[in-house]
Amino acid sequence: MSGMDIYFPDYYNKFRCLAGSCPDTCCAKWQIVIDDRTLARYDKVEEPFRTRLKNSIDHKEKVYHQINDRCAFLNEEGLCDIHSDIGPEYLCRTCRVYPRHIEEFENVREKSLALSCPEVARLLLSHNGKVTYLHKENDRSETYEEFDNLLYGILCDIRSLMVDIIQKRELDISTRFAMVLSLAHDVSRRLVDNNLFDIENVAEKYRNISIGKFEAEMKRRIGGRKPPYMGGGSRSRRQREKYYNGMNTETAIRLLESLDYFEVLNDYWPDMIEDCIEELEDNGASARTDINTMEGIRNERENERFDIMMEQIAIYFIYIYYVGGVYDGRTLNKLKAAIYSTLIIAIFIKTKWLESRRLVLNRCVEYAYKYSREIEHSDENLELIEELMKKYSTMDMVAFVYEILGR
Ligand code: SF4
Q1: Ligand 1, pocket-test mutation among 117, 123, 366, 370, most atoms within 8 A of CB
Q2: How many angstroms separate the CA atoms of 65 and 35, rounded?
Q3: Sequence ranges of the domains in the chain
Q4: What confidence tens digit (pLDDT) does each residue in 55-101 have?
């Protein structure tokens, strides 16, 4: 019997918790569920901390009490009293593990770091190199009932190809995203037709694709919705004014409004969306001036930084979610959801970038982790995002990509 394969991104071991200096600690606002093993250990803790544990835990719900939206053990310095008074071995599993995240497949563990942690978001968004996935093994092995190893292997190969495409920095970022959407669409059709053996032909086609032909095909298929910078001035002046720094403000607002669909987890979230929409509406009105000076607003170094951020965020979402389609077959919706999430973060970042005329890393980090907290920490929202994706065809998504990322 073979052992267990463990995969993780190359920045995984660089993570260090910011503890007291975290701008938005995970010990605030979240109800942290305590595993039974840790609860049993708390019974053996000596006084006086034992009484504090007893009084600060909701034993029925198995969660730590919160005082003013903060964990009862989070002290004024932003540090954890359990960690400092009785030791890190008494932290519950969630606190020990977060922000580390594991996707489980038969004899495989895919590790990642949750973007909802500000320090992880900073690590990811300041990572200039192309992310690689490292591998190690251990001796453990397991058997899952009804696990489809063949499909899992195929989806892993397709995901690797998607990562390769998204990392082709010589191509426009919009074209890279359009290409993975198109690839996911073609693979999904083979899955629906139960034609697994043709998927390698699909992959081969995308490995050798002619970029010029692919872009021309995309332009033809998204037709009237193509952004002005793709069409060589075929749009009227009035149509062009809807575009701001290569971003169609109407589409950006429409996509932000689609966030109303989701469960709200954090009080700041609705205001964040509203502020961004207001900013876009104001900018839309003054777009004529800025369109004319567009090149002045965007300097090449910042454009390059922005594209690398989009690359890292898209790969983050694709890596975690795409292969999960082995369990439910919804691979295309998962891929569309990964691109949708990246575009929403792009809208927040671009809007702030336009306002301040500078691409500020801390602001980018803030938008990325806050989006992740809102969506990735709710099973309901993760389900809803896939439901929402059923409303958008693959070509709708391609059009959104060009309308938001522009160029
Ligand atoms: S959110 Fe991240 S950096 Fe902040 S306290 Fe939690 S694990 Fe540490």
Answers
A1: 117
A2: 15
A3: 27-97, 149-405
A4: 999 999 899 998 888 899 999 888 899 999 999 899 999 899 999 99
